Amino acid sequence: MENGFFLITGTSRGIGEALAQKILEKGNMVLGVARGRSDALKSTKYHHLSFDLTDTSRISQIMKKVDEVVDHQRFDFICLVNNASAGRIRKKVAFISSGSAYTALPQESIYCGSKAGMNMFAQCVGLEQKDKEYRFEVICIGPGKVDTAMQQVARSKNREEYVWVDLAKQVYENGELQDPGKVAEKIYTILDNKYDQGQYVEVSEV
Q1: What is the pLDDT of residue 83?
Q2: At what angle do helices 149-156 and 165-173 cross, to 10 degrees?
Q3: Do residues 11 and 57 both lie within one domain?
Q4: For site-directed labelling of 13, which of 35, 58, 152, 177 has its Cα 20 to 30 A away?
């Protein structure tokens, strides 16, 4: 897959950063949206918008930046993470989910609930898009356990600060955490493939 345009949120570090890097290596263009900017993403095909996604009053600025980046350019594929586009070309919306959407955890009600809600949202939108003439594909991606900065911070805390510190240390010591770059490679493959509308796709399946 080449000559694609990808809008990716959270590109300052972790999975978002690794995925953006992988997509750029494949010859595609990326617009990263995050509060901070990654020092690793230096390609001329990488564009960045410093943006706090909790400020919903300014969401229109994202689409303004998209218009600015893609103006007068033709793409064979557009993939927007947590966003959408229109037209006759192939389009995809990919939500990065979590196993926490299916596993109830104490003190993680908001996180687990939001991930579970996102999965159901994707399923519903997928069904709505299924028979539309200019539909876009909708999927959820389960990355599994990844050695991100969030995991590193979790391991550094004590039990009073973070109830899951023992589990965080255990999965690290057992070698269960995946390299972000390898996960990004598999996510890229998933983005290129076609799945049922609203399907939840595990990285481990690739």
Answers
A1: 30
A2: 120
A3: yes
A4: 58
SS3 labels along 168-187: HHHHHHCCCCECHHHHHHHH
Same domain, 112 and 43: yes
The dihedral through the CA atoms of 98, 104, 105, 111 has a sign that is positive
The string of DSSP letters for 98-150 reads -GGGTS--TT-HHHHHHHHHHHHHHHHHHHHHTT-TT--EEEEEE--SB--HH
- The whole-angstrom separation of Cα 149 and Cα 204 is 21
Paired strand residues for 31: 7, 47
Which two tokens mark 159?
């039990």
Q: What is the mean pLDDT of each run of 10 residues along the chain (206 residues)?
A: 84 86 92 88 91 79 85 78 54 88 86 92 93 87 89 85 85 92 93 93 93
Whether residues 97 and 198 share a domain: the answer is yes
